[in-house]
Amino acid sequence: MALCTGLLTSVYLATLHENDLWFSNIKEVEREISFRTECGLYYSYYKQMLQAPSLVHGFHDLMYDNKTESMRTINLLQRMNIYQEVFLSVLYRVLPIQKYLEPVYFYIYTLFGLQAVYVTALYVTSWLLSGTWLSGLLAAFWYITNSCHLRTSRGSHRTDGSCGHCLLCRTDTTRVEFTIPLRENWALPFFAVQIAAITYFLRPNLRPLSERLALLAIFLSTFVFSLMWQFNQFMMLVQALGLFALDALDMLPALKATWLYTIQVAALLLVCALQFFNSMILGSLLISFNLSVLIARKLQKNLKTGNFLNRLGKLLLHLFVILCLTLFLNNIIKKALSLKSDEHIFKFLKAKSGFGATRDFDANLYLCEEAFGLLPWDTFGRLSDTLLLHAYLFVLLVTVTAALAVALRNLRSGFNVSVCCLSSDCPAQPPLEQPGKCPVHLGAATAYSLAHTVVFGALALSTMRMKYLWTPHVCVFAASGLCSPEVWGLLLKVTRLYNPARTCVMRYAVPMLTLSYLCCKFWPGVMEELAELREFYDPDTVELMHWISANTPGTAVFAGSMQLLAGVKLCTGRTLTNHPHYEDSSLRARTKSVYQIYAKRPPEDVHALLRALGTDYVILEDSICYERRHPRGCRLRDLLDMANGHVMDGPGENDPDLKLADHPRFCEEIKRDLPPYTALFTRVFQNKTFHVYRLARGK
């Protein structure tokens, strides 16, 4: 059943992708352009490996790459998480499938296949928590029904030629069908496998062999997850914080918590070795935090003894020691490595947390993007439409109440007391119907599931893009709770309606009714969505790529927006000045220099900045120069004005120390063909969206 639901989800998402773009019928350049922004950059390395004369030559080109960043040679395997592209390209060259399957289909089918792994892992996790397959089925249904909601589309047309009301999925659990190569789409299926393995590992009374196999599964899934996503360290830090809270409150076995801390560090260090000792990994807060926890345990051996006040004081001291030790270790490591790769993230977090406004260009780029804003309220409306939010809040209320009771009891009287279990993963306990003989208890797996949904829920509420780490687990948590005899037993016991038969009826009747509701309400919409046919439509970008391929040297260097240049590299193979993989301090400085084409700078300054990066051609986009999507203060030109100390365009307030610029905006003024501009920049291509200029040399 788990495999069937996973495969059906995979086929469903693949069909949506085909129907949205008519992917099988469009030209190769259009397929590549459909991989927007950083998606195109990652896919270009898969294409590069396939076009290499040999695997050895392909590996060499990745390790000594001089086309991704002009005038620099970088090791892409160190800088970026592209081992998955390397692995797939090797598989495609080795397997006898070239005659039957195009490279692009091998790539996208692999990603859609991973969605089957994802849903299967969610199914298994829910089953392990509740003890019934019905829970897994409900979790899978919720995942699917919350993955698609209609919204206006960009870049596709209906097959009848209309475009004004095109439809595409607005996702709440996954966005894989229209951002296929994103790192999160590779990584999150393995994160779900890790959670399933942890859920099994935390079950009591496991046999030694089962425990070792669970640990192996946790390590392998953690390692693969970390290898595939540059933000792995931040996600696992959030996970580690949840583990630490449970460990500190005696809600996890101490030895198992130690294993999980150690596995996180070991997996990250192995990834660090494979990425040629990437300094950003070595300087991660996760490594510093986990080491601090393990060290503090050795220093405070009697942490979990004494009365309530004594234990509470020790716990607060323990938190303080770990915080200080984490900051100390992290600071020492970063100074030793001269690490600045992740400083933009901490600037963003500082500004987002309200610790003063910032004019830092990099931090504001994140702050002004909707994906890094707060989770919109309409998300909860969509989750309510499927009854997921109602079920989730119900299960969360019951489980949090039990968790608080358990935490207080553990602080007062220690861990080894007779308890009544509120999960299917507890050891044999006195039955729930014996009032007064034992307090409520959470099994370790259920406690971890609660901690996971709370910490990642907080992350999702603060940063919308991170909802994809939370909402799938919401499906698991809500489904397992609705199918849990312990949750219903406790609720019925509180209302004095408890008996075993009534608990059994509620356990199965409510999930079955929910499944019936989901089928009746969403089946017609799913069928309509699968029947909706659209096609890719972006003639201006296609025209630009064709012109670059036909009219510029293969060694030409292009400057422009990060998003567009990723497509330029994929479609034409030209050298770039900058790109969307932003986790490098020198690259961020390059990007800011290139973006002066949208600032109020004289042509001589812009020309000097671009030529310093070896630029031969610069691409200007009207959609950026005259942007209206963002409000004043968040348009790219506004961010540049503030960073340069200039007053922003348009009506509105400005900081008192900002001054009027001495020059007009470059991207506007260059189109007037005035002598100071034509002497340095020659227009060689233009259409409704793009303007390409060749830079004069030697000036």
Mean pLDDT: 89
Give the amount of beta strand, in percent.
5-15%
Output the strand order for the largest sheet.
8-7-9-11-10
The oligomeric status of these chains comes to single chain
Q: How many runs of DSSP E, i.e. beta strands?
A: 11
Features:
two-stranded antiparallel ribbon; 699 residues; five-stranded mixed beta sheet; mainly alpha
Entry summary:
With 699 residues, the chain is mainly α. The protein contains 31 helices and eleven strands.
How would you sum up this structure, described in words?
The chain is mainly alpha-helical and 699 residues long. Helices cover 61% and strands 5% of the residues. The strands form four sheets. The chain has a five-stranded mixed β-sheet. Helix 25 (562-572) links the parallel strand 7 (557-559) and strand 8. Helix 3 (38-51) runs parallel beside helix 25 (562-572), helix 7 (103-130) runs parallel beside helix 21 and helix 20 (444-462) packs antiparallel against helix 21 (467-482). The longest helix has 32 residues, at 500-531. The radius of gyration is 27 Å and the shape is globular.
Furnish the topology, listing elements before pairings.
Blueprint: H1 2-21, H2 28-33, H3 38-51, H4 55-63, H5 76-79, H6 83-94, H7 103-130, H8 133-145, E1 150-152, E2 156-158, E3 167-169, H9 183-201, H10 208-228, H11 232-248, H12 254-274, H13 279-282, H14 285-299, H15 308-337, H16 343-352, H17 361-367, H18 378-385, H19 388-413, E4 420-421, E5 440-441, H20 444-462, H21 467-482, H22 485-494, H23 500-531, E6 534-536, H24 539-551, E7 557-559, H25 562-572, E8 575-576, H26 585-594, H27 603-612, E9 617-621, H28 622-625, H29 636-643, H30 666-669, H31 675-678, E10 681-686, E11 690-695
Parallel strand pairs: 4-5, 7-8, 7-9
Antiparallel strand pairs: 1-3, 2-6, 9-11, 10-11
